[in-house]
Amino acid sequence: MTTHTTRMLILGSGPAGLTAAIYGARAGMKPILVQGIQPGGQLMTTTDVENYPGFADVIQGPWLMEQMQKQAEHVGTQLMYDTIVEVDLSKRPFRLIGDGGDVYEGDTLVIATGAQAKWLGLDSEESLKGKGVSACATCDGFFYRGKKVAVIGGGNTAVEEALYLTNHSKDVTIIHRRDHFRAEKILQDRLFAHESVNVLWNKEVSTFVDGGGTAGLVALELKDTQTGEISRLDVDGGFVAIGHHPATELFRGHVELDSDHYIKVQTGTTKTSVPGVFACGDVMDKHYRQAVTAAGTGCMAALDAERFLAEVEFKVAEAAE
């Protein structure tokens, strides 16, 4: 068992965690970043990225994350391949324990563990991810300009995604397994008033149909939830919008979470309910969930952590005089 100590400990290696690491390292905090169960975050499973600033051409998600990791290491971040299984945030330094027994202690902690999209769990869905099946209309809707798309779900996320897709498509179908939406009424009113949106009630996707070769998704096989009748809907893109799981299980009972289990932060900051603990990226952001916004909050977390330590150290020095 080895104990690793740092002024800034970062948990999570997506755009938020790596940006926090870059800013923390440049501030001389010698951060340690524990990469967790999915090094690189969700962008490691994203193929074409067209909306990250600074790149005129389409780039690949894994390549972007590789560049961020190299930049973080270049400026002085220590990347650790470990999975944290236990945390103690009751006192500083904060103490995290890896599954191999290594201990990580940080004067500050930045939580950037992200959130995972919920999927339907179909084999056909898994094989067509990135080939017509997506969980983010804001990320991928642009690729379906003028094409026929479908959104699966019935909550706020599904209705918002369907409305967003009308910016690119004049043929948007929203598929819901019940006969009414759970979304807020104002969103439903906008949806029902939109001429480009069609709703299929009491339907669930049984299969994402692969066109073979390079075709990708060509249709959805639907099952009527009341009659069991099978039907087919030809589409170019299918967007699963049934919610997200923030990766906060480790922190329940340690920091304050909201009703959806996202980490609560003070408005306009990344400060959590525990002084010295900061949260950034999708683990605290249920609204935007973009790589660029995650990176922005990662920058904020590093600056918040730096200022926190400066204030603590100033008070200690003042008390010693």
UniProtKB/TrEMBL annotation:
Belongs to the class-II pyridine nucleotide-disulfide oxidoreductase family. PROSITE patterns: PYRIDINE_REDOX_2 (PS00573). The gene is trxB. Homodimer. Its EC number is 1.8.1.9. It is an enzyme of class 1 (oxidoreductase). This is Thioredoxin reductase. Residues 7-298 form the FAD/NAD(P)-binding domain.
